[in-house]
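Q: Here's a chain of 202 amino acids. Please give me its 3D structure as tokens.
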Amino acid sequence: MNKNNKYNILIYLDLVAAILFPVIAVFQVEEYSANIVNGLFLILILAIMTGLLLPNIMVSWLIILLTTIAAGFLVLGYVVIPTEAKWLLVVAFPIEAGLLTVLRYYVLDWRFISKNWQDIRNYLKRYNGALKMHTRYTANKIYSKVISNIKERPQLHLWMHVSMLRWANHEQFAQLHPEEHAQYLEKLADILKKRRLAAQCH
């Protein structure tokens, strides 16, 4: 079984779990009071909206925060609810939101392409089409090659100047503000292209 088939199986299993879990959860609490059933419905709706619409990092923080609060009120606090219903109310949000986040990430965002997938990955590894600049992979290749040439010819006293720009926490910013993140990178790329030689823009 190749890698793509494994991904497809995992995606299908995740989809089935995301559909079956709410059904099973509601079926388990249907014998309890209407308040518990309605509460579970609202939690599941919130989980579905969160998993499908919000960035991954925000989903992670919401899962941690809301699960902690729910556990504090329902499990540690004094609430007259059956134990089974308490645990379902606590775990419903993190489970459903997590399943849908994984499903969205692999299906809606990435859209796994079986055909020519390796060629696409190799291209994206070497070149950023949005910025029209080489990636870190290509820069490391060029750097290693130049360093090797310098070491092989010490009598020529060759040297190389290397500069690097670092943007702390840019991945988190990209998930929360994808459009602004892309605009900043494009502006930075334009500055590098205008102020540095073409051969330096790697």
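Q: Can you summarize the key feature?
A: The first strand starts at residue 127 and ends at 128.
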